[in-house]
Amino acid sequence: MNVVALFKIVPDDTLIKVTGSTLDLNVPAKISTYDKSAIEEAIRIKEKHGGKAIGVTAGNTDRKAIREALAMGLDEVIAIDMKEQDIYSTASMIADQLKQLNPDLVIGSEATTDSSGGIFPAYLAGLLGLPLISYVKSITIEGKKIRAERNLISSTEIVESELPLVISVVGEINTPRIPTVKQILESSKKPVKSVNANVKPLVKLASVSPYVIQRKKIIIDGSKMEEAVDKLLSYLRQEGVIS
């Protein structure tokens, strides 16, 4: 069974700094958090059912991050270099590569940590003409059939489908492994296919700014509790919080 894990390399969100109304995105790159779960699941399926686990990434092709994906256990990675990208251009480029691979299963994550759009797996499935199962928290594969549990927050839905198909996984599906030093060293010997993108995005990112909450910083004197409660309730009514 050949499985493809989709992953995106993004700025490390734990290191991004906010200065006034600007974001400093000049920080080290990393594999988007939930995409590591997609990689981990692809590797587990390969270990259980045989075949290959291939990674595909588009956009930033930071080699350190790609080596981490290979060190986790991917057999190879296709790295599509894209200076500008939107969902259409990215999905088109990845779909072109996947049509050559003809995988049994394509695994993405519920969202990436930079854009959090959450619609990419569905868009890609549409281009490939494959069914999609989204928000998957566990899967069982028997022959050409897949049975998946979907996390719908307030309920769990169990669905079945035939391979091939696309799934998007949630973080609770697994705990991504941490590569050993030996695996990190061996990752440098694994193949990385570089592809230059030739698709122009239909939507361009014009700017990014932080969402800043302006606190009103109102302090109510609490020395007289009843008066303080009355003032608080009065203010909340004035702001329309309560009626």
Detail the topology: elements first, then pairings.
Elements: E1 2-6, E2 9-11, E3 17-19, E4 22-24, E5 29-31, H1 35-49, E6 52-59, H2 63-72, E7 76-81, H3 87-101, E8 105-109, H4 120-128, E9 132-142, E10 145-151, E11 156-162, E12 165-169, H5 181-186, E13 192-196, H6 225-238
Parallel strand pairs: 1-6, 1-8, 6-7, 7-13, 8-12, 9-12
Antiparallel strand pairs: 2-5, 3-4, 9-10, 10-11
Instruction: Report mean pLDDT, rounded to a whole number.
Output: 93
- How is the main sheet built? 9 strands, mixed
Roughly how many Å is the radius of gyration? 23 Å
Would you list the SSEs in sequence order as H and E?
Answer: EEEEEHEHEHEHEEEEHEH
Q: Quickly give the structural class.
A: alpha/beta
Strand percent estimate: 25-35%
Number of strands: 13
3D architecture notes:
The protein is an alpha/beta fold and 243 residues long. 28% of the residues lie in helices and 29% in strands. It has helices at residues 35-49, 63-72, 87-101, 120-128, 181-186, 225-238; strands at 2-6, 9-11, 17-19, 22-24, 29-31, 52-59, 76-81, 105-109, 132-142, 145-151, 156-162, 165-169, 192-196. Strands 11-10-9-12-8-1-6-7-13 form a nine-stranded mixed beta sheet, sandwiched between helices. β3 (17-19) and β4 (22-24) form a beta hairpin. The relative contact order is 0.18. The mean pLDDT is 93.
List its salient traits.
single chain; 243 residues; alpha/beta; 9-stranded mixed beta sheet; two-stranded antiparallel ribbon; 13 strands; 28% helix; 29% strand; globular
